[in-house]
Amino acid sequence: MLLLAIWPVPPGGLPCGGFGCVLRHVGEEDAGRYRRGNLTGLTRQDAREVLDIYIQAREEQDPDLIVTIFTDSATYHERVLEEPIPDREAIRRYWQEKVVRSQANIKCELLKLYLDGITVTAEWEAEFDDVVQGVHKRMREFAVLVFEGHLIASLRASGSTGHQRPSGSRPGETRNAAGRKRGA
Fold it and tell me: Topology of domain 40-166, per CATH?
């Protein structure tokens, strides 16, 4: 694809918002970086690296690691009908309660990642033992993340639980009302 400037512009171009904007070819490697004539600096690879840390922090149940990818004033909104979690320290406390105390045996895989400027949309699948409810869960989660530089300024997530089974059971294994394996 080739984009041309319609109006003559001086070397280096004009900032967007003026009479003319410098248009240029935007290749796959630049996807999401060019917005209104300025490079935001966030690449798909940068976003992937931040999400890799998010996944690592979740699987290792590490609230100290998770806060390294958020700005000081970041918001984390996971529960739709509740207020967002307001800052980095509140996010740490939330993760300590939700991920460290109430989950175990966590596995998480990034499925999709899209980048548009400073906004990332991601989908992942997580499996874990919910130690509070005593069940193993598999969830598909979707998040919209807004970045400031290479840190998350805002995360809005939503998910649905696809499958649940008693903790300690194997996939496909069924149990009766007393919790005993069928046929045992």
Answer: Nuclear Transport Factor 2; Chain: A, (3.10.450)
